[in-house]
């Protein structure tokens, strides 16, 4: 069983994001980039499935600029067998990525695609779902546990009321939630070994996919600054202020 894992290069989650002065987007110059955290969880899950003999090959895919090769090498250092970079300078929106992944699925014929549940830069939470729709495959999103059999998978999902367990037939798309696993630590020997693993580069046109953005960003703004708090003398004053100033009671 082949497993395809899409990995996105995003701003490192520790970085405080700066918005460009003209409001056209987020400033990416000289900013530390990293693998989308949910995608590391997805890679970990795929690698564990290979280690337990369920999967035979794990293929990491990244769509974006040449710098995404680092993201693929990291996935390979975690245990993915090879990488595919769909290289483009064009800003990619979820539908474009889903189409690229769909085209790769038609070539590679994986039984399972494990995406992150969302990319922490656009917070779209769309790509896995769109891919499942394009491929007409079952999907199980926000997975916190995955048990794969030959032709099906049991996926536990965290939902508001508790846990929901679905059984889906393969091929399918699963999206990884935070509690699915704890990704392994990548060691220097792993990184060195990953340098020797195959990494193919293709262009969207090679896959017959048009990736031009279909949505225009009108404005990106910083969140409104929170004002300083105040100390109140007693409960009576607190109640008074909540009633008359905050108007919440
Ligand atoms: P999103 O729909 O943008 O929130 O992304 C959901 C998931 O789709 C991510 O966690 C990745 O697994 C995958 N994905 C999105 N964009 C890309 C990309 N440019 N390259 C590879 N995978 C991606």
TrEMBL record:
Alphabetized InterPro entries for the sequence: ET-Flavoprotein_bsu_CS (IPR000049), ETF_a/b_N (IPR014730), ETF_b (IPR012255), ETF_beta_N (IPR033948), Rossmann-like_a/b/a_fold (IPR014729)
Family membership: Belongs to the ETF beta-subunit/FixA family.
Domain of life: Bacteria
Function: The electron transfer flavoprotein serves as a specific electron acceptor for other dehydrogenases. It transfers the electrons to the main respiratory chain via ETF-ubiquinone oxidoreductase (ETF dehydrogenase).
Quaternary structure and interacting proteins, as annotated: Heterodimer of an alpha and a beta subunit.
Keywords on record: Electron transport, Transport
Signal peptide: none
Electron transfer flavoprotein alpha/beta-subunit N-terminal domain boundaries: 23-211
BP terms from Gene Ontology: carboxylic acid catabolic process
PANTHER family hit by this protein: ELECTRON TRANSFER FLAVOPROTEIN BETA-SUBUNIT, ELECTRON TRANSFER FLAVOPROTEIN SUBUNIT BETA
Organism: Paraburkholderia polaris
Protein name per UniProt: Electron transfer flavoprotein subunit beta
């Amino acid at each position: 069983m082949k497993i395809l894992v899409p990995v996105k290069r995003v701003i490192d989650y520790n970085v405080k994001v700066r918005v460009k002065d003209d409001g056209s987007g987020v400033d990416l110059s000289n900013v530390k980039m990293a693998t989308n955290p949910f995608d590391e969880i997805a890679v970990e899950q795929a690698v564990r499935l290979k280690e337990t003999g369920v999967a035979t090959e794990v293929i990491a895919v990244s769509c974006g600029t040449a710098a995404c090769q680092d993201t693929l090498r990291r996935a390979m250092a975690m245990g993915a067998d090879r990488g595919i970079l769909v290289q483009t300078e064009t800003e990619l929106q979820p539908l474009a990525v889903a189409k690229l992944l769909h085209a790769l699925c038609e070539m590679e014929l994986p039984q399972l695609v494990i995406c992150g549940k969302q990319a922490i830069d656009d917070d779209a939470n769309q790509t896995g779902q769109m891919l499942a729709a394009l491929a007409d495959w079952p999907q199980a999103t926000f997975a916190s546990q995955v048990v794969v059999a030959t032709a099906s998978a049991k996926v536990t999902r965290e939902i508001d009321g508790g846990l929901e367990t679905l059984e889906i037939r393969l091929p399918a798309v699963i999206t990884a939630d935070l509690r699915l696993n704890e990704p392994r630590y990548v060691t220097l020997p792993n990184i060195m070994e990953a340098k020797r693993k195959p990494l193919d580069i293709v262009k969207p046109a090679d896959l017959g996919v048009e990736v031009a953005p279909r949505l225009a960003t009108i404005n990106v703004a910083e969140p409104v600054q929170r004002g300083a708090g105040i100390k109140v003398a007693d409960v009576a004053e607190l109640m008074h202020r909540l009633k008359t100033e905050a108007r919440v009671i």
